[in-house]
Amino acid sequence: MNKKLTITSIKNAKGVKPLVMITAYDALFAKLLQESADMILVGDSLNMSFGGKNDTLSITLDQMIYHTNAVCNGARNSFVVCDMPFGTYTNKEDALRNAVRVFQETPADCVKIEGGEDKAEIVQHLTSNGIAVCGHIGLLPQAYRSEGGYKVKGKNEAETVQLIKDAQAIESAGAFCMVVEGVKADIAAEITKSVEIPVIGIGAGADVDGQVLVFSDMLGFYEAFTPKFVKKYLDGAKLVKEAAKSYADEVMGKEFPKEEHTY
Ligand code: KIV
Asked: Which CATH superfamily is domain 7-232 in?
């Protein structure tokens, strides 16, 4: 079994070893995924992937805490990141109170918050009060409604300058790593060079310090749409449907259960 990473070993991985992050929302998948993942992210994407909602915005802190405990129960050997939900870190006091709840009510190793320069003061308040923070800049899923959709960032000079400022601001505020989402690959590479902490990309090309994917995308369970940045490592939806159909056929044909399944 892999040794559990620490904040120090994650920071030291920069430029040495690419970091592997995968989301999980329950104990079963967390246990399966921990063998290959350095870090498991209990992303607020669970609102979509698990909850079937259109965006991440309506997930609550109680729900994040419930799922983070489930993941930690399954992945006892993994470094676990808990996403702070939309609206739970709009000011320093709320952010600290809510992040302390995550630390007191779950064994998560850090919280993740979306935002750059505009959130640096909040990141600083959390890190100076004993909460480890993973940043998240670029495309911000929690800005889905305010920005009118998911917007790839780094498409012009002004956005690029802001992204570098964002990365450096949250590094200076004490974040130990950051997710960079939906950013043009050459700009993500520039961001990666501009900071000393690891940059974990999603839809940000190859020249970063690690990658994160949502597990249900990566395993091909989500059929409706496949974003350009996703690679399916399993045709999960097809396999699940075939298995369920075999079971249904055998039940209807009275082939299951057989002698060996019977007390
Ligand atoms: O919620 C999530 O799954 C995330 C990833 C997209 C990085 O934040």
From this structure: Phosphoenolpyruvate-binding domains (3.20.20.60)
